[in-house]
Write a structure and sequence with these properties.
Elements (H helix, E strand, L loop, with lengths): L2 H47 L5 H42 L17 H51 L4 H32 L8 E4 H11 L1 H6 L3 E5 L4 E4 L1 H17 L6 E9 L2 E9 L30 H11 L3 E7 L2 E9 L1
Parallel strand pairs: 2-4
Antiparallel strand pairs: 1-3, 4-5, 5-7, 6-7
Amino acid sequence: MNKKAERSSRIALTLLFAGLTFAVILLFLLMLAAFIIIFVKTDLLSVASGIKINRPLLIFLFILFCLVVGAGVSFLLSRILTGPINRIINTINQLADGNYKARLKTGDLLSRHPTIIEITDSFNRMAEQLDKTEILRSDFINNFSHEFKTPIVSIAGFAKLLRRGNITSQQQEEYLEIIEEESLRLAQMATGAMDLTKIENRTVLGETEEYNLSEQLRNCVLQLEDKWVKKDLEPELLFEEYTIRANEDLLRQVWINLLDNAIKFSEPKCAFIVAAAKENGALRVSVTNTGKTIPPEALPFIFNKFYQADESHSTQGNGIGLAVAKKIVTLHGGKIFVQSTSGKTVFTVELPA
């Protein structure tokens, strides 16, 4: 439904409520008018016929009639007007209590109104997203705990071997290297979790400066040299010199996360491409790698926190990097999107030039 249709349906709902209220008031005014007419006629009839009319009984019967009619109309209106509202409140309470499977359902007459349908659809989408986030959060805790435990056990095991002694200098060097790698891995996971918390709580970009974006991209590629050399990858840098006004430290996190992902999921002995160009008043930076295609059903969730398209968890990661990257790009007033077809995956960041 477009914005104009939504506005029209909401106005129509307002008019419906106003019309029902007006109808109730009019009904009671008519009843009051009828009573006055009857009261006057009974006086005239009493005078003309000489029959004495019991006024208290007449007033009592009118009040009783008003109470019965009023109770009936009130019950009918409450069913029409408050039924959907009560249903919404009850479902919201279920959601607040942690039941993320709770969904609103339309059923009565008012629930067929476009605005009520809009409220229902919006609520159900929200509940669905909360449900997915809860599942991702639970998976993240399980995976994060497992990934945290693995290097800790590894560090503890090799530390015990070093304490026992009776090992060659080559073995000692090998064990120390493993301990160092696993310690760095732990630090990286902890830093990722803290980065996500800091970035999510951030509402303003902060200090910005004009700097050489091309130089920053080259430095980020060099920073990850050990990783791409291990896989025998070849970086291709396809860009001229560009400057940009932005938060340099925050954007560095974006490039590091995208490059790290590209290296991680690239097939060995392939090239990964970093390109930049100015298009339509925007600066577009893309990172391309050759590897497994991301399934189409995973693409809409790829930037959600805790989400990992690789459900086997055969590669290291905790589903934080891309969520951090998206938040930073959004703070810069830009966009980030992904395309993955025929074994090639391209992440593109579009920033105001």
